[in-house]
Design goal:
This protein is mainly α. Helices cover 91% and strands 3% of the residues. It has 3 helices and 2 strands. It has helices at residues 2-107, 110-188, 192-230, and strands spanning 237-240, 243-246. Strands 1-2 form a two-stranded antiparallel sheet. A hairpin with a 2-residue loop joins strand 1 and strand 2. Helix 2 runs antiparallel to helix 3. The longest helix is centred in the N-terminal third of the chain and has 106 residues, at 2-107. The radius of gyration is 45 Å and the shape is flat. The termini are far apart.
Length: 247
């Protein structure tokens, strides 16, 4: 009788353990789903916040652009009004001067009028030639400054190309060393698997070397083009694999 009770107790305990295990697994699945839903909801809310913030930034940028455009228009309008007022004032002054000149002309003798007219005409002519000469000098100076700036830019571009060519040549040496290493491994390989791997390494190194040589030629052509466009010359340099290098 006691053994039967013990068996029943063991069976009941096993059933209770199985139920507990099942319930624990079910709760774990529920908790996992809950966490996944929370993560999905958080990601959705973050995306909505980001979109909302982007819309706010766009709206602020649009408002700022409109404000800047409005300020520019107002500044242009104010400048136009100032210019118009200055023109009116200049016309008024010119008219007053003309009226005074007519009044003085009525009182001056004819020879004085002729001398004054000739002096005014000579002054206007000399002033015109002086302004024209100054303008031509300024334009020539600006052209020289622009040309020097362009040459400086061309020198910088050429130097950058020369540095890049040096880098490419160094890479090409590295790839060539890899190719020689692959050929050496292929020569001593005694197993088929080793020969296959060596052949693959050699082919990859050859392809990489060809690509580096094409890149080198492209950069050399670009450097020569930049030199021609920038108005530079090749005096004072020697030709190398990377192009012209200063002596």
């Amino acid at each position: 009788m006691t053994s039967l009770d013990e068996l029943r107790a063991i069976h009941s305990q096993r059933i209770a353990d199985e139920r507990a295990t099942f319930e624990a697994e079910r709760m774990a699945v529920v908790e996992s789903r809950r966490r996944a839903e929370l993560a999905q909801r958080a990601a959705t809310e973050a995306q909505l916040r980001e979109e909302r913030d982007a819309q706010i930034r766009l709206e602020e940028a649009r408002v700022a652009a409109e404000r800047e455009a409005r300020m520019k228009l107002e500044a242009m309008d104010a400048a136009e009004r100032t210019r118009y007022a200055a023109e009116l004032d200049a016309q008024r002054q010119a008219q007053e001067i003309e009226l005074r000149r007519e009044e003085v002309a009525k009182k001056r003798p004819r020879w004085m009028i002729a001398v004054t007219t000739i002096a005014v005409a000579a002054g206007i002519t000399l002033g015109y030639f002086a302004v024209q000469s100054s303008r031509e000098a300024d334009e020539a100076s600006q052209k020289r400054a622009i040309a020097e700036h362009q040459k400086d830019q061309a020198r910088q571009v050429a130097q950058a190309a020369e540095d890049q060519l040096a880098v490419i040549e160094n890479d090409l040496d590295t790839v060539h060393a890899k190719l020689e290493q692959g050929l050496a491994l292929l020569a001593i390989a005694d197993k088929e698997a080793d020969r296959i791997r060596a052949k693959q390494a050699v082919a990859a190194a050859q392809a990489e070397e060809a690509a580096e040589r094409r890149r080198l030629e492209d950069w050399k052509a670009k450097k020569l083009h930049d030199i021609r466009i920038g108005g530079l010359h090749n005096e004072g340099c020697v030709d190398t694999a990377t192009g012209c290098i200063k002596r």
